[in-house]
Amino acid sequence: MGKKSFALPYVVWMIGFTIIPLAMIVFYGLTDDTGAFTLENVAAIMTAEHAQALWLSLGLALVSTVICLVLAYPLAMILKSISKNRSSLIVFIFILPMWMNSLLRTMAWQTILSNQGILNLILEFLGLPAVRIINTTGAIIFGMVYDFLPFMVLPIYNVLIKIGQDKVEAARDLGANGVQTFFRVTFPLSMPGVVSGITMVFVPAMTTFVISNLLGGGKILLIGNVIEQAFTSGSNWHLGSGLSLVLMVFIFISMAILAKYDPEGSNVV
Amino acid sequence: MERTLINLVDISKQFGDTLVLDEMNLTVRENEFVTLLGPSGCGKTTTLRIIGGFVQPTTGKVIFDGKDITKLPPNKRPVNTVFQKYALFTHMNVEENIAFGLKIRGKSKDYIRDKIKYALKLVNLDGYEKRSVNALSGGQQQRIAIARAIVNEPRVLLLDEPLGALDLKLRQDMQYELIRMKKELGITFIYVTHDQEEALTMSDTIVVMNQGYIQQMGTPEQIYNEPENAFVADFIGESNIVDGVMLEDRLVEILGVKFPCVDEGFGRNKPVDVVIRPEDIILSETEPGLLDGVVTHLIFKGVHYEMEVMAGGYEWLVHSTKCFPVGTKVSLKVKPFDIQIMNKPESEDEMAVEIDG
Ligand SMILES: Nc1ncnc2c1ncn2[C@@H]1O[C@H](COP(=O)(O)OP(=O)(O)OP(=O)(O)O)[C@@H](O)[C@H]1O
Ligand SMILES: [Mg+2]
């Protein structure tokens, strides 16, 4: 009895902020202006423009997730070895940018990377040719990696610090060298962190429209931009909701694939 | 006598400011069962880790089979360890845990399968191949840790309190099993425990340690019957340790009463420590010229009675099959052979070992 009443606020929260919005998206996505049932909004993903945006989103999200993973793993290992000796101040400094608004940080990069921006000023000063980065997919990937990297590092770091030194020693004792120990013991044991890191990077990367707006110059459309425009400039809630449903299905599928690599289903962070 | 396999030469280890091992020298022969015995924190695990290669000694050398292996990483040493906290790989099942070392060495699938079966039989866990190690009890995990180590057929097996998590019955079974395994496999055991009974039952050689020093090294009989100092006497079994004065060869004065003994060469009127085991004290009706006392406590222990006797200002612990009720006036007799005379500690270092016991 008592336990149930404690759960009440959570239930209210779930209904108010998850179930109802979700239901509304489903409703709008599956109806037209007259309120009649239709699959048109969902099927709209098949149009060349929308499908292209979806594939581009998927591609960029995958690339930036992989880059984040490749950068984050060694970073997390370095963080672990540092924090073992010194205070956790370093970790704190590392997560500090996470508390700053990502919009602001991305806008900062816009100014840095733009054609007359700080980067090119510096290059010019050094007598080097200017670069055109802004408004390319490269700039968007850069922005995603920059924005989401901490979300990959932290879960991996959290798992790594929990892996007992004793297991590493046992592997060494049984004849494994440093590399073998890493691939057979450390990395598999850190899988839960890797999986939640991938989730925490892939999902926002797949759905972002801010980064592509600011660093893609509005010329490169991701699925997030298409949906955003349907809601705002297009004022077509039905289309926006229909496309959102498709995006959700894509994310669910990716999560299901990921879940296979996290046997205990443990979610870190 | 088998040949020497491991030699620790002047090994010292310092962690920060604390000296954990102080110029330790230890020789382990092939096929020997050596036990490091001592109270918690005396440096047993550290010694084992130095042999295993997980800790670099501050000074000194580790010689294995005539070669200096002090700088060799753990994976290149012909030793395997059963860790104090098992350290099983939680992302693998029982079978994969045991196969780990064999796979690293590139053994064939058939060989590995046979070895796993054999090892599981050895530790009495046949059929557990596919179990998750997380679903095992502490005792089962410990036995898997043993199996995981022995399948590699190391020249030396280092065991850090491998039976610590087991209940008394299983512990005794496993003691027996370990000795059997050792005979069957023909490997050298270096065994850590703080359980003196375990050490006495299993070992060829016991190394009694305290605060980073080796207090005494010898066969279980030597350690029990001829402790070299008060710490060893006190740590191994129960004993009465009293001040005495060596009046001349073969005569010691204890609490004002002269006792004949067998020790020689201490000089005249030399203060000494005297150790007498509780089972070596013979109680009798009061007789003149002997140490007189009164029984103050009496407990029945099954095999014997345990009594405390207040005599000469010291509370003597006595084990006897004869019962003397509380309040009985008695005399204490000890056969000369059962009186163990020890030099008093001279240096500060030796003094330190006496503090806790
Ligand atoms: N890595 C380390 N850093 C600092 N001090 C350490 C370290 N390892 C061990 N010590 C210290 O060295 C001393 C000996 O430790 P050790 O683990 O060898 O004891 P032990 O005899 O195995 O004790 P126990 O029976 O409790 O396992 C202890 O005082 C311990 O605190
Ligand atoms: Mg220990």
Explain the overall architecture.
The complex is a heterodimer of chains A (269) and B (357). Chain A has 269 residues and is mainly α. Chain A has a single domain, classed as Orthogonal Bundle (MetI-like fold). Chain A contains 14 helices and no strands. In chain A, helix 11 packs antiparallel against helix 14. Chain A is globular, with a radius of gyration of 22 Å. Chain B is of the alpha+beta class and 357 residues long. Chain B has two domains: 222 residues, 3-Layer(aba) Sandwich (Rossmann fold); 109 residues, Nucleic acid-binding proteins (OB fold (Dihydrolipoamide Acetyltransferase, E2P)). Chain B starts with a strand and ends in a 5-residue tail after the last helix. Classes of the chains: A mainly alpha (269), B alpha+beta (357). At the A-B interface, helix 9 and helix 10 of A face strand 6 and helix 2 of B. Adenosine-5'-triphosphate (ATP) binds next to helix 1 of chain B.
What's the SSE blueprint?
The complex is a heterodimer of chains A (269) and B (357).
Chain A: H1 2-6, H2 8-29, H3 40-43, H4 48-85, H5 89-95, H6 102-113, H7 118-125, H8 137-160, H9 165-173, H10 178-189, H11 191-207, H12 210-215, H13 223-231, H14 237-259
Helix pairs in contact in A: 2-14, 4-8, 4-11, 4-13, 8-11, 9-10, 11-14, 13-14
Chain B: E1 4-15, E2 18-29, E3 33-37, H1 44-52, E4 59-64, E5 67-68, E6 79-82, H2 94-104, H3 109-122, H4 138-150, E7 156-160, H5 168-185, E8 188-193, H6 196-202, E9 205-210, E10 213-218, H7 220-225, H8 230-235, E11 240-248, E12 251-254, E13 257-260, E14 270-276, E15 281-284, E16 291-300, E17 305-311, E18 314-320, E19 329-334, E20 340-343, H9 348-352
Parallel strand pairs in B: 3-8, 3-9, 6-7, 7-8
Antiparallel strand pairs in B: 1-2, 1-4, 4-5, 9-10, 11-12, 11-14, 12-13, 14-20, 15-19, 16-17, 16-19, 17-18
Helix pairs in contact in B: 2-3, 2-4, 3-4
The structure holds adenosine-5'-triphosphate and magnesium ion.
